[in-house]
Amino acid sequence: MRFEHAPASPSDVLDVRPFGKSWIELKRDGTLARSPLDLSGLDLGGPIELHVARDLRHVAVVERFGRKGRAFRDGKVTMELDRGGYRNDLSVFPVAFLDQKGRSLLVHATDWNRLDVSAPSTGELLSGRETIPYQKGEPLDPRYLNYFYGALHISPDDRRIATDGWRWHPFGEVRSWSLDAWISNLWESENGPSVRSLTYREDWNQPLCWIDDGTIAVWGIGGYDEDEKSSGIWTFNSESLEKRLLLDPGFSPHRPWPPKTGRQGWMVFDGGLLFAIDPSTGTTVWTLAGERLHFEAGFAPRRYHPDRREFSSWEDGKIWASRLVP
To answer: Taking Cα atoms as reference points, which of 54, 234, 71 lies closest to residue 158?
Structure first.
């Protein structure tokens, strides 16, 4: 088993994502599939993330460790995204598309401790609710959330959401809740009955991924739970909280500090295989039975296309694709 790498070709890209059966590139000049996007006002000097809806008509572009972003429909701006200026350089911009009965919705941060749901086609806010203030010395409203949201991960069936954020002083926490419940209860993401705290960890901005509709794999746990001292990969049922040690690779993924100064590790699960990517070491391929099938030092791709079973990498104005072959 090995990775087969296609020859690199020139392309100055900011991000690449699966797009139907192919890839789509967001180039540094704002071009997306030969159409210009208005990226004025965004800080293109830092990491930029492209997100693509399942309908392929809606996209969002955000400053990965910044404050602002923008949503588009067929290349036209429909929403200005802003998560506020409070410590936003410490966590990934929370944004994700989900599909609700064929309708694209956008989950996005509107403050450090608040997520909202909008219709990206029009910008209509679907989760409007009051802002709960923090009043020093006063009892906290149970809907006040002392949590800095991070990267968002939608389950394969679009029914649950997970986020990798943090709390004071500081420690990471992986949270999950029901998207179905959120539609009917606007406060579900704060303190709804479906909210689950899956695990605490010393760090955040760490790899996690869904391995089925209800199970999340988390890499980089330790320091808060005596039976989770291992630096391995654990799985958690997003509702029952049942957990088990999946893999014990013996190392933790690279986490640059401050986070915006370097690339973070990540994971993807597909075809019965778990790919653990660490920019400081390389890429490891595991089975869910704990067997390590392959390790390639120095290879740290950035995106994965499940239909093509292909990874995309880019560096220094060049882009290339890689496949795992027997």
So the answer is: 54
